[in-house]
Amino acid sequence: MAKVITTELQHSGASGANITLDSSKNVTCENNLQVDGNVTVTGTLPADKLTGNLPAISGASLTNLPSGGKGKNLFINGAMAVDQRREGASEDFASSYVWVVDRFFAQEEGTQNRITVQQVDVAADTDPWNAGFRKAGKITNGDQNDGPVAAAGVHLHYKFEAQDIAQSGWDYTSASSYVTFSFWIKSSVAMDIPYYFRSRDGSARMYSTSTGSLSANTWTKVTKTIPGDTGGLQIDNNNDRGLELLLAPYYGTNGTASGSTLNAWKAWSSSSRWEDVATTWWDEDDATLEFTGFKLEVGNSATDFDFKTYGDELLKCLRYFYKTSATGAAWKRFYHGRAHDSNTARFMMDAPVPFRTVPSATYSGNFQTDGGTYTSNPAVEALTSDNRQLCFTTGNSGSGWSQNDALAYMASDDTSASISFSAEL
């Protein structure tokens, strides 16, 4: 094979070399380089090698990139902005679980002193603040007995509606189709925090992993790309639970096992979620965990967070929970209706958006009807198939009504009275 050995190529009319070759196999083109065919790059092309003024490039032929440069987020309220239940007030665990913000709840078991949760502000000029996040969720430890405690645990949860995953575009049964999970987290103690995704349909499957080493009191962005599962992952196309995220600053040894499989799909096991979890966070009195920016998107790379307006995010949250309050009006009329008989009244409401399913209703504070008759906790039924128009029925604890009496369900001299409707997963 013929070979030309030279260090320069020069056109006869040029004043100098058009192309220069050096001993390290670098090629320098002094002016324009026109390519009529395809350009193939073997290996990687680092960004720092693309210098100078680059032309606009159409993304029409690029692959594995979400449209607009931001992948659709399968989390709702991932920026922690909506907190209908407490509006930023702290709450401890009066029961086994409590909502941190809309769509995210925390759970505990085996604690000696209660855990508290709260929506908090992201401190200015921190990395997540610079990325646009202004709210975070926070879990604060109590004074616990030093571990390990086999039956104890503190963990954060999020439940995805199954049809949102099924219709996301992720081929969750293919090992060559991916979703990428990303979020910001800060722990007051240095540790590696485990988490997993669990399916709920068919034979339950799980993917267990961890954040990697976190430095104390330092915000860290965690990114994890997860392939589909060829072992039987099932996601039904319905409005029930599909996937569930659980992240645990502590989990007792009843739920862990030495040699537990990580970074791969496996059959669900309540006794082998991860390997044993360090007691670092559990042992530290008043240890804290803050988190924000949750995003799950189809594809094998993380894109910028797709921020939404507060109103748009609230509308998505209302599918699962809706709270209406007196907000300072001591005699606020919430809903109007009629007496069905002497002991039962029915009130109509149109929900802001269709509920996921027929919600349950609870009230907080003092209520009455126009005539001063106090009512019991309402039972709810749907009048339309989309669960948007509802009727709730109450009883009374005072004198009877007359059938078809026009009534209002109202606060009884209580500026903080509220009614909550829950259709959570």
Main sheet characteristics = 7 strands, antiparallel
What spatial form do the alpha-carbon principal axes imply? Answer: elongated
**What is the arithmetic mean of pLDDT?**
89
Span of the ends, CA to CA: 71 Å
Q: What amount of the residues lies in strands? A: 35-45%
Number of strands: 25
Strand order, sheet with most strands: 5-6-9-14-11-12-15
| Rg calculated over all Cα atoms | 29 Å
Helix count?
4
The secondary-structure class comes to: mainly beta
Q: Helical residue percent?
A: under 10%
Low-confidence spans: 56-68
Write the SSE topology:
Blueprint: E1 8-9, E2 19-21, E3 27-29, E4 91-92, E5 97-101, E6 104-109, E7 116-121, H1 127-130, E8 135-140, E9 153-161, H2 162-166, E10 178-187, E11 191-199, E12 205-214, E13 220-227, E14 241-251, E15 265-267, H3 280-283, E16 288-298, H4 310-317, E17 321-325, E18 333-339, E19 345-350, E20 360-364, E21 367-368, E22 379-382, E23 389-394, E24 406-411, E25 418-422
